[in-house]
Design a protein that fits this description.
The protein has about 190 residues and is an alpha/beta fold. It is built from three helices and nine strands. Helix content is about 20%, strand content about 30%. Helix 1 crosses helix 2. The structure holds guanosine-5'-monophosphate.
Amino acid sequence: MPKINPALGYEAILDRVLLTEEQLQSRISELATQISRDYAGMDLLLICILRGGVVFLSDLMRKLTIPHHIDFMAVSSYGVGARTNSGKPRIVLDLNTDIRGRYVLLVEDIVDSGITLDHVLRLLQTREPASLDVCVLLNKADRRVVHIPTRYVGFSIPNEFVFGYGLDIDELYRNLPFVGVVKQEYQ
Ligand code: 5GP
């Protein structure tokens, strides 16, 4: 697959916009309403998986109407330039927070094979949170190899490589306000 030339604008690799800024923001508002209701009166801790989840987290948390804490983890799954999971997730940044007895909601950009989230969920479960659930913006259900219990899902999307709204392609274009499908030659 050709390498992305960082000097090019995103238009060079965009096949089509899959989810517009309006669609994303409206669905995230719905999710935030639901989460604010479900966790009312609980000490909610949002855990964001860097780096892809950070744009989703920052919009989601600003729409929540309940007090909450945040913390971050980073997991490396894909080798540089790869478009599929290498199958060996590695925790490269761990939490600062003790999650024992906490109500934890993992905030993730996308579930594809499910291998990354499965790894993280198993690790966090050993730390005995009061609850541990998943809020994922994009779900590629067709690609799943491990079952992931997703309590909140933004959108189900087809099996195509997407970018924008936190999701990168060769570490670029995370800042786009929409989610786009990558042209076939870059998939
Ligand atoms: P999984 O372990 O579920 O296969 O993959 C999870 C991670 O792979 C996501 O957090 C994300 O970083 C990356 N990923 C999966 N599908 C896509 C995609 O279509 N586009 C981008 N940019 N990253 C993806």
